[in-house]
Fold this sequence. Notes:
elongated; 23% helix; single chain; 1 helix; alpha+beta; Rieske Iron-sulfur Protein; 4-stranded antiparallel sheet
Amino acid sequence: xxxxxxxNFLGICLGGLATLAAAAVSxxxxxxxxxxxxxxxxxxxxxxxxxxxxxxxxFFEFAGSSAVLVRKRGGELTALSAVCTHLGCIVxxxxxxxxxxxxxxxxxxxxxxxxxxGPPPKALTKIPFVVTNGTITVx
Length: 139
Ligand code: FES
């Protein structure tokens, strides 16, 4: 009787682990195959304005490198290279602080790419963009 209880408990634990392992494997595949909300045409990236809520940032590939579009709280948009000007790591958007953090040496940048603190010697490079009929075109 006691062995049956242990077997059932072990079975539940193994089933849970198998489910977690399946999720860990399938999520990256799903992310790779899922449609993206940005599109590249003639080297320009288009993103729908409705996909950029206030306070959010969206990372994308631009001209063979990593770039980011950010909409500050208050509505202003900025497009930047996401490559840190210190040693080239990719910055991360910290939504709660509304700034960019470089994970390599803790460089911080404003939503406009200006250095706040840390070792980066200069601002993130701005990328030109236009907004037409609800579509943001970067590049
Ligand atoms: S590479 Fe970004 S702070 Fe060093």
